[in-house]
Every structure is written in structure tokens, then in C-alpha cells.
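Morning run. Coffee first, then this:
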Amino acid sequence: MSDVDLSALPSVDRLLHSTEAAELIAEYGRPLTLEAMRQTLEEQRARLKAREVTLPTPDNLLRRVEEILCGWVKPTLLPVVNATGVILHTNLGRAPLSEAALNAIQGVSQGYSSLEYDLDSGQRGSRYLHAEDLLKKITGAEAALVVNNNAAALMLALAALARGKKVLIGRTQLVEIGGGFRIPEVMKQSGARLAEVGATNRVHLEDYATAIEEGDIRLVMRAHRSNFRIIGFHSEPDLAELTQLAHRHDLPVLDDLGSGTLLATERFGLQHEMMVQESLAAGADLVCFSGDKLLGGPQAGILIGRADLIAKIRKHPMARAVRADKLALAALAATLLHYLKDEAEREIPIWQMISTDARLLHERARHWAATLNAGEVVEAESAVGGGSLPGDTLPTWALALESRDPEKLLEALRHQRPPIVGRIHEGRVLLDPRTVLPQQDGALLQGVQNALDQSGHSI
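And here it is:
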């Protein structure tokens, strides 16, 4: 085209009154369809002026309109098959919920609920009670408070108990977790003042004692190193020693466990992770931990400990800003009931995964290989992940797929429905059955077969 005749493009009105447009309007609504048509015509005008295309037909334009509409309404938060072998995969949503937790969410979300309504008195109630009694019974704590995540729990506690005052912490615990969340910056934002003692690798009880004697300390804090270890020339006082010292000076101790477990991890061949109950038994006045890590529940931040401190935290204005919603509270209560009924290992998915015998994983991996007639079953390692038990792994068996281009095969797997997320090890794509829920086996096998067929990789 020497001179582009833009008037030859059909008008929005003409497109809007076509049969195809009526179908789009029925599916996507008139306002959104109209916006997509205008965008499509603007694109075409720009491309015609640049002489990149010839004049499109109305059918071609409407196909482009449909592409735009599909892109706009396509969800980005999707269920995926986690075949990485990382049990608490932060990027994949951490802990999957138990069936009871899912039922609890459905039950309170389909209609109204007793979130803040006392059914006995017929008066306003408190959302805090729905998980508090369970937490108290399981851990032995005097009181409990649930907020939307552990970072919020820590910041809220610091703001309520130590604003404008010093919080004492060892330099061995000035940690940074995922997303650039650093203990010193959290303290600054809470209004508390950081008082650090000791060296990077060693802190002595005398370091704490000297700082306390200098005065103006309001709170002593310990932060769990959830995503790394210090080895070699290293020492620091244990929690019991720290609480005894602090209590002699009438100072409370806040123990940030990060992940937080209610079960003994060494039972499953893992290193010992301090349990929430152990922290309280060692004298911690407040303990905070996550709901969606080793607890195996929804995203939540849990504070347990002395009733007077919890009451003060609950009254802080920030508490309302970070409170947990009804869905999280319903799922958390259902998850906690598994612990109370001594069925956590059987009912909570992450503990099912952690406790699964490697021989059963070998059988599943062999079934995958036989069904696909592809790949090799190999020994591998699964990780707990999620800022829990750093460096600790569990023996597993995985399906290893050979490919000329492993990255492209991974990409093809991610574009299946549901997406399949694996990992590359020694040049092969590994799919670990430990983190694939049993009911997902069919979807995984179909997705892998599709990815192999579509990408044409040699196996």
C-alpha cells in the first residue's frame, strides 16, 4: 500500500453488531468487549501506518479481539503440580491444606458465619477465640493471637511492647529471610530500637548481661535462623539460659521461631527443629511462628505466650490492620484440630509427604516411567524448604527425563494445564513424587506426555 486508507478499517459499531461479537459479549460482557475492539483497531491503525500489515478482514479483527479478551480474563493464580521435591515451596504457595481445612473454608465462605458473633449471648463476639483455645490446649500457652503472617506478628509484638525502647538481640540472629525481610529493618519500622550484642559467629551470655545492666532494655529477642546454619567456631547461649537471665531483670523474652513445628522433626529422619512447646518450656514469654510452614495450615502469624503480653498486643491499633480473615481462621482451626486429635501425620499433607517411606516413592516413580514408557527412575533428595530445616533433605526416588534442551522441556511442562513444575539435576529433568499429591498423578502423566509430544524432545 503506497497510501494507507485507514477509513477502510471497519468501525467499532460494525464489529459490535456482528454475530461473532454477540458471542463475545455473551461471554465477556459488552464493556470489556468494546474496550478490546477499540484496542484492536488502534493496534491495526498503527501497524497499517507503519506498513507492517495489509488491511485485515473483520474476521481477523474479531479473532484478535478474542485473543485480547482471553488474555485479560485469564487467571494468574493457578493450581500447579509441584514435582520439585521441595515440600514447603515458597513460590508455589507453601503448605497445601488438609481436606478438613478445605471443607472448613468452604463452609464459612458460602454464606454468613459466626466470625464475630457470640451464638450463646446473641451479642458481638471476637474473631480471636476461634483458634485461641485450640492453640492454648495444644501448646500450654496462657493466651494466643492470630494475625495474617509471621512478619506481621513480629512487627506487631515489637510495636506494642518496645516502641521507643531497646530490643536486645545477638548478632548471630540478625537474619534476612526471603523478600529482603531483615530483622534490623523490622525493628526500625516497629519503632523499637535495635541493641545488638556479640560477634557474627559468637555471642556470650555475659554480652547480654552487660547490655541489660547498662539499662533501657525493654525486651530480649531471639530469632531462629530458618534458612541458613552457622558452623565452625560458633557459640551462643541457649534459650533457657537467655530467659533465666532476662527474667532476673524482669524482662520478657520474645522467641521468633519463623517456621514453627508442633511435631518432633527428628522422628522423620530430620535434624531437630525446636518445637513451639519447647520454646515455651524453656521460658519464652512470647513465641511467634507461621501457619503455612511446618504447621501445615493457611498463611497466618501466630503469637502465643503470657496472657498480659498478648492482651497488650491485641489492643495495639496495628492489630486490626494485620488481623486474620475468616477463611484463614477456619482453615487454621481445622488444621489445629488434627494436632489435638493426634492425627496430624495422617491428615496434614506436608506431614504425609515428610513421613512417606522412600520405597513407596520408588513404586510411584516406576509407575510413572512405565506409563510414559520414558525416563529412568533415579535416587534423589527432597527438601523441606520454606525457611525450615536448612540443608536437611529426605531420600527419594524421582523420574529423570533426558532431553537435548532440559530448560525447554521444563518450559513445556509449565505450560500444561495444570502447570507442572520440576527441576533440573545433572542435565536431566527430575520429577519427584514426594511432593505430587496422589490425586494429581493422572494430570501429571497426561501433562508430561503432552509436553513430550509437543516439544518433540528425544527421551
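The chain has a mean pLDDT of 90. Good start to the day.
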